[in-house]
Amino acid sequence: MTEKQARFLRAKMLGALMREARLEAGKSLKETASAIGTGSSTLSSYEHGRKSISLPELEILAYHFDVPLHHFLAPSADELEMEREINPEIMVTLRQRMIGAMLRRSRNEKDVSIRQFADQVDMPPSRVSAYERGERPIPIPDLESLLNALEIPMEEFMNKDGPVGEWHRDQRAFEQFTKFSPELRDFFDQPGNEPYLRIAARLSKLNLEDLESVLEAMKGLLA
User: How many structural domains does the chain have?
Assistant: First the structure.
């Protein structure tokens, strides 16, 4: 297979994955195209493999569908390890775009125009538009004003993925651990209790109906 044929096949496969993810997320072609700042015809070309989507567009698309980017890229183990290394410039630029997309989506969900939004936070519409497109960094005071207007807590816009997100999760987990009683911390520290902790972690992920079924089964075993 030539390089040209390989690229053609990859475009077809990527388009199929994009369409599948869009349908799974229950998003329309028009809504999805708007989310990445393009037209419906262009997105349709992406999904049918007639054109290839760019990485920034794919990143926003993955966020819009709430699907990991790796679902589309299928990186190797080496690439995954490399991704853990932080490139500040790239990370900041990407995060600006992501935050802008999140702002735009949140504003659209409330059916508020750019001008209405700008008036509400006393900012020029051009500045708000630039923020939503990720073209300029959003100072913390401005972001707080924007999120307050949308009634969204800052925590929802914080980085939850990648090395930085993992670090924040570890810090929060440690803070929670320090709040436990000495007896409970000692229980966690005992290697022999690991099976119980694993069971507890799995049970915490069950919905109420499944959890009730498990509890009923346990009652039957203990009876």
Answer: 3
